[in-house]
Amino acid sequence: MPELAELRLTAAYINECSGGGSPSIRYTNIKKNPVHKGKDIELPFEGEFSITAESRGKELILWLSQQGEKVPLKMTMGMSGHFKLTNTDQEPKHAHLKFYRHDGTTLSFVDVRRFGKWKLGETWGVNRGPDPTMEPDEFKYNILKNLDQKVFNQPIHLVLMNQKYFNGIGNYLRAEILYRLPHVNPFMNAREVIENFPQLLELCIEIPRKAYSLGGGQLKDWENPWKSDKEKFEKFIKCYNNKNMAYIKDKNGRRFWFDPKWSIDMLSEVLDQQKNDI
Known about the structure:
The chain is α+β, with helices and mostly antiparallel strands. It has 8 helices and 10 strands.
């Protein structure tokens, strides 16, 4: 699933395709693919409009603008969602939401697995924390002021997926963050880790920024729209999906990858404790 770095790259690509909202690039219509269960887009205005995109953690908003009026279109990328600009007569397969431009081209939301969705008029989620890369001070403050909350009784590898505090951190980012803390057992109590290893929060800022600079994760169903150097990103990834690492599956079937030095015997003990804490 696209994570923080991939959402930032997606927003940047949409803005490049849209001229950053420039009136020289105008959109004329939005159409949904009939096979998708999502709602049709009913704009509150008629005629041509512009688009700018903004990401925050794992959220993406397209701002549809016309003569000072702005309407948010919130996109959920799902497992495989991405955008692609083509000529209108060459729209990609699995294009489920199509933004038609005045010049005969189309910006398509492409989603092979159809988990993506959209909602007109919706902005940032109320249960989403600050973006670690764009709002680093607010990100750290939001966690430290809430450390007494029950959620931080859980193991750190679970808490890193909590979007109320770690907005944008997903499966591959948490594996890379925890791997770079070699003295931290990823099954430790989250509060203890955050209190004793302040570098954790710094890594939550640095690792997604580095992933973004390298073009994001070339994941199974997500592709960088600029076709960046996949090899550089793969060298950066040390833990996630690495056959030399260990993994366990969470209740959603996702694999959490970690350094195998944390023995199975230790894991059994920690996991028993984890059941009591949740």
